[in-house]
Amino acid sequence: MRILYQLRRKLLPRYRTLRVTNMLKKQKFKDMVVVELGSNTCKNAVTWMYNLPIKKAYLVDLFNNYITFEGKMDNYGDGNIRFAKAVKRMKKFGDKAKVIKADAIKVAESIPDNLDYVRIDINPTYDLTLKALETWFPKLKIGGYISGHGFRSTNIEETRAVLNFIDNHQDSLSFSGRCNEYWIKKEK
Ligand SMILES: C[S@@+](CC[C@H](N)C(=O)[O-])C[C@H]1O[C@@H](n2cnc3c(N)ncnc32)[C@H](O)[C@@H]1O
């Protein structure tokens, strides 16, 4: 069973990030420096490590309970247990992966600029999504990408934030996506 799980992670990107991971695989990135905001127990991050040429991955999560965009307490469970699971899961990648317990916005100043890729998978409220895009887009290198997977009519707050961000920065980015996944490329 465990072997099957590891094989699946090695061969197949997670369904939720399938399209963007496949898109990134086709680019000519080398020694990627990447960030996931809302990495939780790092299931997605493991897929990256097996599928992308990663030099360093910063995996950020609050690991704390909070009120979700639907106005309910999140159901991710005990933050300490999730943090321990994330650290254990990423241990085999050594210095290439760093799990960080922090807020997605506040942590930005402690992570280097010139990033290849940032994935946003945090509480998808309008304010937080827009703030995350405004904070992290400038930290990308030219040609780098920022992405998310909540671009759909049932997730109106995240979708509105993404559209407003694109509108405000039209001349420095290009926008693409498939199904619920969107990705924004920094063009200048
Ligand atoms: C949908 S889960 C992430 C799933 C994970 N990316 C994966 O693919 O397995 C959302 C995560 O975002 C985290 N989160 C929510 N708001 C956050 C914030 N402001 N800063 C950092 N993490 C946050 C939550 O703790 C939760 O673990």
Can you give a write-up of this model?
With 188 residues, the protein is α/β, with parallel strands linked by helices. The protein has one domain: Rossmann fold (3-Layer(aba) Sandwich). It is 34% helix and 24% strand. It contains six helices and seven strands, in the order H-H-E-H-E-H-E-E-H-E-H-E-E. The chain has a seven-stranded mixed sheet, sandwiched between helices. Helix 5 packs parallel to helix 6. The longest helix is centred in the C-terminal third of the chain and has 13 residues. The chain is globular. The termini are far apart. The model has no long low-confidence stretch (mean pLDDT 92). The site of S-adenosylmethionine has 17 residues, from helix 3 and strand 2.
List the helices and strands and how they pair.
Layout: H1 2-11, H2 18-26, E1 32-37, H3 43-51, E2 54-61, H4 79-90, E3 97-101, E4 115-120, H5 126-136, E5 140-148, H6 156-168, E6 173-178, E7 181-186
Parallel strand pairs: 1-2, 1-4, 2-3, 4-5
Antiparallel strand pairs: 5-7, 6-7
The structure holds S-adenosylmethionine.
The site of S-adenosylmethionine has 17 residues, from helix 3 and strand 2.
- The CATH architecture category equals 3-Layer(aba) Sandwich
- Average predicted local confidence, pLDDT: 92
- Low-confidence stretches are none
* Radius of gyration over C-alpha positions, nearest whole angstrom: 16 Å
Q: What is the 3D shape?
A: globular
The CATH C-level name is: Alpha Beta
Secondary structure class reads alpha/beta
Helix and strand sequence? HHEHEHEEHEHEE
Helical residue percent band:
25-40%
As for the number of domains, it is 1
Strand adjacency order, main sheet: 3-2-1-4-5-7-6
Say how many strands there are.
7
CA distance, first residue to last residue: 46 Å
| Percentage beta strand | 15-25%
Predict the CATH topology: Rossmann fold
| Major sheet characteristics | 7 strands, mixed
